[in-house]
Amino acid sequence: MIETLLPYYLYFKAVHIVFVISWMAGLFYILSLFIYHTEANDKPEPEKSVLVEQFVKMEATLWKIIATPAMIISVIAGAGMLTLNSGLLQMDWMWVKLGFVVGLLIYHFICQNIVKQLKNNQYKLTSFQLRLWRELATIFMIAIVFVVILKNAINWVYGLIGIMGVAMAIMIAVKLYKNYRLRK
């Protein structure tokens, strides 16, 4: 049966990959906009008002036209792949991947909340905190790619240690970048 469905499965897979890339690009870019938007508050008027207004427009457009539609299509294409090849749900690595995907979905909706907060001039996170938050998407992406590529070939203990190591390296890099910017 799977042989007859294979062409459809491959179309779903291709669509899934394209829109996951778009979704991740949207998440990375929206966090950069959040950072610049937050930093615009330190500018003198009228520069501050002009920048904040522009960032609100850019964030809304990116969120409504790229990030959220890409997320929805990624999830639909992924569900299509699982429907056409339900045997994937019998594999442990797929459940690990789906766990990370749930984390990424939660991350997405928290970012959506930040879009709304910034639109309403609520700045609950500093630009440094937003830089750290941006790197969480990187950690999810790395984890998902490694789980999908390595599947059962990875020892989960070493994989978890590796992910934690990457997370620590990213956090240190963000801190070093902050120190560099402050000296500048």
TrEMBL record:
In this chain, heme is annotated as bound at 16, 97
Task: Locate the transmembrane regions by residue number.
Answer: 14-36, 62-82, 94-111, 132-150, 156-177
Per its UniProt record, the required cofactor names are: heme b
The UniProt keywords, alphabetically, are:
Cell membrane, Heme, Iron, Membrane, Metal-binding, Oxidoreductase, Transmembrane, Transmembrane helix
Query: GO CC terms on record?
Result: plasma membrane
Q: What is its main location?
A: membrane
Identify the metabolic or biological route this protein is part of. Porphyrin-containing compound metabolism; protoporphyrin-IX biosynthesis; protoporphyrin-IX from protoporphyrinogen-IX: step 1/1
Supply the InterPro entries for this chain: HemJ-like
List the GO molecular function terms: metal ion binding; protoporphyrinogen oxidase activity
Give me any GO biological process, just one. Answer: protoporphyrinogen IX biosynthetic process
Subunit and interaction comment: Homodimer.
Q: What does this protein do?
A: Catalyzes the oxidation of protoporphyrinogen IX to protoporphyrin IX.
Family of the protein in this entry: Belongs to the HemJ family.
Query: Per its record, how is this protein called by name?
Result: Protoporphyrinogen IX oxidase
| Organism per entry | Pedobacter rhizosphaerae
